[in-house]
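Final report, Chapter 2: Outcomes

The project's central promise was a pipeline that accepts a single protein chain and returns its three-dimensional structure in a standardized token representation, suitable for archiving and comparison. That pipeline is now operational. To close this chapter, we reproduce one record exactly as it appears in the project archive, with the input sequence first and the structure output second.
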Amino acid sequence: MFLKYSRLIYILAGLICSISQSWAYTIKNGAIFDGNGNQISIDGIAWIGFQDSNFLGGLWNVPFNPIDTQNGVIQLLTSPWTVPGSNIASADKGVSFKTIRLPIQPGIWRNATTLQQSPFNFSVTDVNNPESGNGPFCDWSKGADGSGHCLQSKTAPDLLTATINEFKKQNILVMLDFHHRPGLGDNFRDGTVVATNYSLQDYHDDVVNFIKNAPSNLLGIDIYNEPHELFWYQDNTQTTPIQPAWIKVIAAAASAVYDSNVNTLLFVEGPGGTAGNDPYDPVYSNTATICLPSSTKINDPNVISLTNDNSRCPTANTSRVTNIGSNWGENFRSLLDTTQSANGVARFDAITFRTQLIQAIKTNNFSNTDPNVIADWLLGPNNDGNNGHLVFAPHLYGSQVAGWQSDANDSPIRFDWNFGFLLNSGFPFVIGELGYDVQIPATGGEDFFLNSVAPYLINKKINHNLFFWTFNNADFPVGLRASDSDLSLFAWKEQDLHDLFNALLPVQQYGKLCVTVPMPIGYTGTKFPVITATTVNNSYQFNLTAFDTLTCLNNVLVGNYTLTGNSITNSDGINYVPENTNTALVSLNTETDITVKYVEEPKGTLNIQITGDSNCPINADQLFTVTYSSNSNTSSVQLLGSTPKDVSLPVGNYTINVTPLQLPQNTLCSAQFNTNLSISANTAQQETIHYTVVASNNCSVKAQCSTWGTPQDSWAGSSCNLYISTKSPMANPAILSLVAKGITAVTSVWNATVSFTNGNLAMTLNDAVYVPNIGFNANGIIRLPSQATLSTKGQTFTCPVNASYN
């Protein structure tokens, strides 16, 4: 039925077409625009029902619009934070949806006079306010009962039109989804388009039936849901009846829309099932290939499989793809330009698509319009999407629904080659379905969305391009509504979608971090290191089981990490430690490999000597214990009298303490020494502990401390109140000094100013005369010493510390 135009006639037809038709929605540079040039944000959700019952689901116990004092379900879509009982506390925790995906079955137009049996609750209607509650769906020409409620619903086609018009009142766009063949229920959803009683001509006519009188808020048509029994460019002769090539279905829909002069887009899913059976798919083709660099890292070969193939792949890209997992509706690989995919470049072969489309329009023979004009309308006159009307709509699900999922490393590769290349070629894609019930920390749903899908969309700057499945509760997976019997929502799902549509992180972004430790020179021990990667809020451990072997962690949050390692001990007692402090930058969906080199622990010498002044002689038989601590490691050495002793210590910073602090024969003699010192490699550090008389003031410190967390928690902390008692009043200035273990920083202080260095805490009281009580907060789990020193009135006193913890 198409006409073979001459070149001149074709040009004139194109001009006439451009003048007479004003398409409200078009695509340009991979985005969707309205007739005024404004970019469209999908921010979408599906609302099921029409495909099973010819009306919206979930309106039996609650009304669509508000009525009297009752809120309406529509408010859950536009402003759920205003609805009591919605579980959405504020606008920053909820979503105002902009587009609805409305699944239908095309047989609805064959039921023009059929009345649905109570498809909604008639009791929430009012003849005096017919637009309230469920009133817009009533046939008020049939009158009302004694209570003013409607008696009869509209017919099925009119219910659909009324529903779309109600969304229009809320400035919500609609994408109509041809969900399955004519008939109510999933029995008609089997991945086929035609049947013995439903032809491709019937499908074309059903598209025409709807769009010829469609409301102006119709954004587009999802031309057919998950056609997994079809191939892209070839009829499937393995089915009964034979299923047409998917391009023929696209051609039928394009002809119907173009010839009806309606302002809408075509949303196209990918055909084919999960098995590789499309002859045009380069993953399974005997003539075409997808070849990736040999350095490509794949975590799960069940999701993406590679084989080294020097015969079919170029030298620069020797890894041939033998499998890429896909959900129903996800696989667009047959549209790849195979001259480029062999070189690792994913691009849309729009020329082949156009050629196949034109041939399909001719074969269908449904239109008198020149196929080139329809192709220009769909693809854009330059086949680059600009001023076209084609949007691709892949479906994505986690393992809860699909039985498998890809992780944060493999997902970008999967997405790029299954459908992302279409965006790179100028054509937009919108995730047509994605839903889940499984919440983190469980896997299979939310984790796939947060770790894989959301970061990918945000990275592509198309974070609005998604239809969530679904609004209703009565489906699998259950939707956004926590119950279809009330107005409650799943707050965590709303928050996930809010964060995506507003491109808020953390919608967590992850990479892969791998660590290897070469065999240390001279090491003969049997233990392997534990490497810890730490950033401000996150920490990961690598428990190595071998040297010279990569140990990897997937799903490492992006950021800058510091890598440290524990010491390992040789069979002769020599310790081995990391030679340097390593750092690693973990980037989105990339692998970062770090080598941590271990060497024999460098050491220095601590020379310890005990001395006393003339008032504090050191008895030759007096035993002293000197304790030295570094990080979490504490050791001690004993000295007899004033005989010095050398201790070999690993390089590092140490806190020193001595017992006894007062000489037993004269308790006025207190030890004076450096509490903090550093040991350097191959050098000696002198530590002299000198006893001298310190005046006693009978001072004491009572400490009441609270702690939270454990020493291993980054958020652990302590809070202490100190009560200072003295025999005689203090004078300003007064400084209380003590050695505090377990804390890394003082975050706040009251009634004093503070200095904190290497565990030494010095607090200057703001008013020692009238306010002898001070306190502080700190990071870490504190442990106070048994004694502190108080400096006031030009003297230094030793004060016992009585500490309690809770």
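Archive annotation: The mean pLDDT is 90.
This record, like all others produced under the grant, will remain available to the consortium after the project formally closes.
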